[in-house]
Amino acid sequence: MASNPQQNQQTLVSYPAITKHAAGLVDGTLTHVTSMLFADKILVTITQGGRLAQWIHVPLNSPNPIFADQQLPSSTDENRLLPMPHLTPKTLLGASTSERETVGQLYATQIASALFTTNPQENRTILIGLGLSKYEANRQAFYDTIDLVMASL
Q: Which of 31, 34, 109, 146 is deepest in the core (most CB within 10 A)?
């Protein structure tokens, strides 16, 4: 769980979009997450130090009919953290290294999976902007970031 979320604001406006914000410490770094829920897309930005360095989009609807009728995974703790198999993240901007692209797509897929698991009828595309100060494998930082994102959705 994210360390001491300092702020969790919600601005409910039907047009142009509903905006929500959460902030907290992730691996000792203040992290801001903002989500904007548009009619056709969901925009999520994750920033540390005010930067946005990478953009990824993940369509929640599956163009592949094999996955269209797939049932949700069981809600056991092990399976709950697995990404949904029909999600296909695509890096739009900012994948300067393969490590950065892999970490970004991991975050994007996990965020999309968590959103789809909580709302299986959701079919909008998610656009994720990442601005992490470190792109390294840190399990606790990953979980804390995902918790902040879910608090903002």
A: 31
